[in-house]
User: Fold this.
Amino acid sequence: MDKEVISTVDIQNALLRKHERDFCIFEVTTGRNLSGRIDCIVMKMSWAHPRLDAYEIKSSRRDFLNDEKWMKYLPYCNYFSFICPSGLIQKEEVSEGVGLYWVTGKSRKIMQKKKPVYRDTVDPLIYKRIIMSKLRTDRYPFHSSKAEYFRDWLEHKKSNRELGYQVRTRLVKEVIELEEKVIVDKLSNDKIDKVREVLLAAGYRGYDVVSAVRNAINDKNIVKYSEQLVDSLHQIVHVSNNILEDIKENEESNEKDR
Assistant:
């Protein structure tokens, strides 16, 4: 059985996804004073081949072993199946003619473990029951009563609160990371400005030169190597100036010789 907890509402949502093109209703009362209640009935949307699929949802072993009413639901459907979390019920435990479906852990996919047998006759009273149940469940979807609705609401409220704490923690972490990045970027810009000053002092006043230097420096490495870069540029400029002076002296000497 899956370690992840799969609730009744999880199974109901999985059934809705499986039968998204059909009419799907939960908690259909079959007798007076709520003496019988089918967990889920699916009406196939077909005029040529209409059929009713009934599901009995089991989220615990105790619920499955203590259920003595499910046999009374057989006359109201063409197919009858149990559906439960993966591994909760084995196909050998299910009566002949009854199907078994598992809902998997994180993906919440439905797997057929045992195919149900088709029953040709359906008590027409069930259609009246479906309409009456539809009017009731419209007020509290997925729930048989107002009390059950609010119990589930409180449980989800607790989950949402835990999710809020996790989101807040993550946001705080991201804010800290962004603040650190701003500091690094500021240091990087300071170092780039130093390089720019050196270039301007050497006579390199073109925007393309400064822009090329800025784009060529990796943000992650500039803080570490910018000081070395500044020193290297100073040396390059010094050597370049010496070369330019030598060239100028040679040109002047050649002019005098002429």
Remarks:
- The first strand starts at residue 23 and ends at 29.
- The radius of gyration is 38 Å.
- Residues 8-144 form a domain with the Trna Endonuclease; Chain: A, domain 1 fold (CATH 3.40.1350).
- The beta strands are 23-29, 37-43, 52-57, 79-85, 99-103, 110-114.
